[in-house]
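batch job 7 of whatever, protein = RNA-editing substrate-binding complex 6 protein domain-containing protein
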Amino acid sequence: MDLAFERGFQRAAEAAGAEDSEAALLRLLPNKDWVPFGKAMGTKPASTGAFGGGAEGAAAFYLKPSLMPVVGSCDWECHPLYQKDLAFVKKDGAQEVRINKQICALWGAQELLDFAARRGCELDVANAVTALHRVAKAADRWQVRKDPRLAALAAQASAAVVLDGSPRDLAKVQWAMGRLHASTSASTSGEGLLAAIGRRRAEFEPQSLSNILWSLAFSDHPLDQLLAEFTREIHRCDPQALSNVAWACARRLLCCAPVMEAISRCAVLKTPQFDVQGLANLVWSFATLKREDGPLFAAVAGQALGAVWRWGPRHLANLAWAFAKAAEFRGPLLAAVAAEALKTVEHFGCQGLANLAWSFAAGGEAAAAAAAPLFARLAAAALGRAKAMQVQNLVNLAWAFAKLLLAKEGFLDSLAAAAVSKRGELTAQHCSSLCWAFGAVSHVNHGLMTQMAARAVCCISESNPQDLSNLLWSCARLAWNSASFCEALAEEAERKAQEFPVQNLAITSWALGVLRLSRPQLFGEETLQRLREERGRLGAQNLASLAQGLGKQLVRDEGIFSFLATEAAECVDAFSNQELAMVLWAFAKAESAGEVGDSFAASVRRRELMPQDLAVLCWCFAHFAEGSPVLDALSWQVLGCCGEFQAQDLANISWAFATRGRENAVMMAAIAARVRKLGDLQVQDLSNLCWAFAKLGLVDEDLFDFLARHVCDVCESQAADLLPQNVSIISWSFARLALLNQKMMELLAERSQRMLGGLDGQGVANLLWSWAVLALRPASGEGCVGLARRAGELVPEMGAQEMSNVAWGLQILQQAELLQCFLRQAAGPFLRLDRSDGAAWAKFANAAAAVADEAEELKDFFEPVLRRLRRLADGRDDTEETQVSRLGWRYSLEALASLGIGAEEEWRREARLACRLAQSQWQVPTRASVLAYGKWRLFPCGRTSERCCQQLGHVFSSELASTCVGPADVPPAVAEAARGGQAEAAAVLSLLAELEACEAAEVEGEVKLYLCHTPSVACLRLLCELQQTLPRCALSFAFDDAWSGFCGAPR
């Protein structure tokens, strides 16, 4: 090797070939401690010192003479430039000095411990302190932490400085102990090192105090007295001391306000003197302790902006983390950090990458906007090192990317897989954060989720409320309802319910609701008491989440809902549209809506609502007692943005207005037009739309043709989401409007036979009723058998209306045997029911009478009505109230017979023909579709040649009832029928008006009336009063059952 020398430092140019070991060693050591020695004269080889050695004919490098160990031969040679140094070393004969220089010549912790163990008895205070100090500074110190020789050296140094050490020696030993994380509980002399430090604390220089405090950051020793002493001397501290003490306080999470304020004041003045590491440590400390200090962070930001290129990756990451933690990461600093990190991101360590990502994710919207270019590079760097990362770093990266919604599925999967591969290190918090990341980006990886769930269950007892709420939230967000896992989480949440902060309680409530895991114990009296303690501080979002969760869990606790109602009313204007809709939905679902509905109505009217919020609010106010006025107001908003709604929204809105019976014809027409433009509709939407239009009596043939086509597609595709309830509701809706789509009804009938076991009582009744209304006899054969059998099974669960609809349907469908079988099962339970539903009793009784002559118990039900009619016919006052509005075919005939009212068959044929000509086709019998036919010829008594009034035959409709002008004194029953818009009232009013015009005191003759459907009780009362008004006239009355035929003809 050819060597040149310049100013005592090595400069070498390697020749071709392998590098010799001495040169390799020299390159690893600082040049400043090595000097070149000249070649030995003559044949005498150059002597070898502690390091290196000279070969003949070559120059060698040795330690400077001032660092040479004073052992061995003293016949060394050196360059003339260093002759005086060598002479000084040779003359230094003090044993402790020679030992200290030997210690200083050793670099490795193993070498130092070997020397201390071998020469331990020769070491004085300075030697022991030096040896321990150099071990603490050695690069391989972590390899000897458990070496018993280290413990022996520490004990020796501690005992020595306690007995005879200077404050500087005490500080150096304590610093070394802290750096080595060694125990400092006691010294071998019986007096603890820390006790000695405490006793002599006033003697320490500020730098020594800072070193001691720094070392105690790794222990639990009290720092109060030392911090107080440091604060008194803080004006003498250099920047490193300030950052060391701040770091120590943060490491111990010891937020001593006076100390931190004093550090801040001094640091702000000395900011330009800090190095990069000092600044990073300073802001890291304040951020860790959650100390808000605007001036300090502003000063550090100014320094960083001046030379951000000087900040290495580790310090840059710590700087960003601290500013983000303190909510100060914004403005020019944010942009500068992003730009610098973009250049050097590949050089960041694993923790640096994680901290940097976390900082931008936690830095708010401004940080998120600046993060996109950086995160693309950061993701690539992280993926390359994922397997080498600690679990915490992987978790932080996943959280940060998910928080900014920048996590691609593959990236998140890779991080989670790397974390799961270290499942032994995964804690409950790690699992919850990873699951939260998957939930935040709505990405499900079933394999990884299953593994994380298994690990989370293993350490579930260690979970805190935040972990539990995050895990439940993730499962709810991803609709990942692993029964055993979610149940375990719910049970643990119940056990720790009293530890949950309000925010976590609200999130947990929402998640349990979405997962359909009802846990009412979570919301008992103790929880309510805690909520009351937070009165006025819950916030709109927490209130909305809590309420929605309770609603989904079907919790019906009046106390908690009353509290939520009061809180919500006080901050109603703070709710977003979505939160407002969530709260109202919850109260509507919980059937606890009166007070909230009233207080929120004004706020709803003031808002500009999005389509989905409008749909939810309409659904909510349909449940409120005073919701109709709000629905009327919302209907115009719905109309204004009808083109933006999706099918589900339109179905919910239609359902809401139909439920409250609010018919805005313009809005419903717009909804129908919008529905026809949409593509595929969900089965539930089809069902709700059909029901809503049918309930409101809105016949839109184009819409129902469109809906029927979709229903046919669903049936033919064998879709599993077509439920029994949907089949019955759709069938009922088409029948309610008398709209027959033969193909659809046959498909629904066929589908119903495959799901008989899923039909409830109302479903069976709706199907039979709809088939009867639409006269689906071709499809009713075997279908009726199955439905009748199912109805018999469900009799114990049925109400009066369901049983009567089944019986009536079987009667109209002419299924006498099935009807008889059903009546044998249902008659007894029916008679035990409450008699408040008169219409149901009338239907059931008439169906029973159609197949059984003996129905005396059912006939007794009509006796009060018959008594009332007889009193009217006899001219007596009628004060008894009845609950029956219509007697039906059989019992109307009996009532008329008892009143002495009948009709000739020839007259019946004439009336039927006239009504068929007027109506042209059969219609579902409603008030508007039922027609009456009247004919009369009256003259004054005894003067048959003088005609008083005459009607040769006329068809009357319900429309005429409201326009006919009768006499001034109209009988009560006639007036009641006229107000009800009944067609027969129009005929009687016309007759009475003619009688009044002829001014005859008493008349005789005949009056003939016909009704195309069974008469109501009001109609029978009208006939009784007509008998009283015209006692000398022959009254004839005939009627048909519109359900069975069309004015005497088949339907």
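notes: The two ends are 119 Å apart (CA to CA).
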